[in-house]
Automatic annotation (TrEMBL):
<dbReference type="InterPro" id="IPR048469">
    <property type="entry name" value="YchJ-like_M"/>
</dbReference>
<dbReference type="Pfam" id="PF02810">
    <property type="entry name" value="SEC-C"/>
</dbReference>
<dbReference type="InterPro" id="IPR032710">
    <property type="entry name" value="NTF2-like_dom_sf"/>
</dbReference>
<feature type="compositionally biased region" description="Basic residues">
    <location>
        <begin position="1"/>
        <end position="17"/>
    </location>
</feature>
<dbReference type="Pfam" id="PF17775">
    <property type="entry name" value="YchJ_M-like"/>
</dbReference>
<protein>
    <recommendedName>
        <fullName>UPF0225 protein D7I44_05100</fullName>
    </recommendedName>
</protein>
<dbReference type="InterPro" id="IPR004027">
    <property type="entry name" value="SEC_C_motif"/>
</dbReference>
<dbReference type="InterPro" id="IPR023006">
    <property type="entry name" value="YchJ-like"/>
</dbReference>
<feature type="region of interest" description="Disordered">
    <location>
        <begin position="1"/>
        <end position="38"/>
    </location>
</feature>
<feature type="domain" description="YchJ-like middle NTF2-like">
    <location>
        <begin position="82"/>
        <end position="176"/>
    </location>
</feature>
<comment type="similarity">
    <text>Belongs to the UPF0225 family.</text>
</comment>
C-alpha cells in the first residue's frame, strides 16, 4: 500500500507531480511527491536567516509572528496543542530549512532515517482547509491543506490530507494522502 519510488524516478528533475501511486505524504517537494507525498523531503536551508526573527510574520500563514506561532514549537519551548498546529509547524520548518524539527515531529513508525535535500524548492503559502479530530483531548487527527511551491520556473500546489497521532502528549505526523490539485 505504500509503493516506494524507483531511484531513477526520484532523480528526474522538474517532473510534473502526479497523485497516482502516492500515499504516504507530507511536504515532499514537487519532484519527490510523485511517490511519498509532501513534507518528506528536506527543506531548503538558504533562507533560514531571513525568517528566524521572532518578530517576522510566521511562514505558516497564521497571521501571528514567528515568535508567537511556530518559533517556540521549533525550539521545544512549547508543544503543538493540536494536530493543525503541528502541521503548520512542520510546513514552517520546511519553509525555513529546519530538517531536525521535521524529523523530530515525525512518528517513529514512519519516520525516514534522513531527508533528501531539495535546495531550490520554495514553499510559498499554506492554506489549511479542514481538520478532523486533532484537538487537545484527541489522540488522532487529520488535517487537509494546500501548500504552494515554486521550483525555478515551476509552480504548483500540494494538496494533502495528513494523519497525526498524539503520543505521550506530543502530536506527531504519521503519514498522508495526496489529493488532486
Ligand atoms: Zn506558524
Amino acid at each position: 500500500m505504500r509503493p516506494r519510488p524507483s531511484p531513477r524516478r526520484l532523480r528526474q528533475p522538474r517532473r510534473r507531480p502526479s497523485s497516482t501511486g502516492s500515499d504516504v505524504t507530507s511536504f515532499r517537494t514537487p519532484r519527490a511527491r510523485t511517490s511519498r507525498g509532501a513534507f518528506s523531503i528536506a527543506p531548503r536551508r538558504s533562507r533560514m536567516g531571513d525568517v528566524t526573527d521572532a518578530g517576522t510574520r510566521c511562514p505558516c500563514g497564521s497571521g501571528l509572528s514567528y515568535g508567537e506561532c511556530c518559533g517556540p514549537i521549533h525550539v521545544g519551548a512549547r508543544r503543538a496543542a493540536t494536530a493543525e498546529q503541528l502541521m503548520r509547524s512542520r510546513y514552517c520548518a520546511f519553509a525555513l530549512g529546519d530538517t531536525a524539527y521535521v524529523l523530530s515531529s515525525w512518528h517513529p513508525s514512519t519516520r525516514p532515517t534522513s531527508l533528501d535535500t531539495e535546495p531550490d524548492v520554495v514553499w510559498r503559502r499554506l492554506d489549511v482547509l479542514r481538520s478532523a479530530g486533532g484537538g487537545p483531548f484527541d489522540t488522532t487527527g487529520t488535517v487537509e491543506f494546500r501548500a504552494r511551491w515554486r521550483q525555478g520556473d515551476d509552480r504548483g500546489v500540494l494538496h494533502e490530507r495528513s494523519r497525526f497521532e498524539r503520543a505521550a502528549g506530543a502530536w506527531l505526523y504519521v503519514d498522508g494522502e495526496l489529493l488532486p490539485d
